[in-house]
Amino acid sequence: MFEGKRGSAASATRTCRLVGLRNEKTEEYHLYLTNLGKDGYHAPDVAQFYRARWEVELLFKELKSRFGLDEINTTAAYIIEA
Hints:
This protein is an alpha+beta fold. The protein has one domain. The protein is 37% helix and 20% strand. It is built from 2 helices and 4 strands, in the order E-E-E-E-H-H. It has a two-stranded antiparallel sheet with strand order 1-2. Strands 3-4 form a two-stranded antiparallel ribbon. Strand 3 and strand 4 form a beta hairpin. The chain is extended and about 50 Å long. It starts with a strand and ends with a helix.
């Protein structure tokens, strides 16, 4: 179920695919939930997309913590939009 506005709830059906890859070294499975279809997006492709996304997330985390980019004090509309 997906929550809507406070005090109300809406339900929706979503189709997703669970992709699992086994790490040969550690013998552990890595699981990914995606809405990408299996035609054109094989399991290794999905894993690579998630690895790249995780790198972007780590970059944003560092920018926020090191440079304080999560709080930019400005009233200039063009800066806020950027």
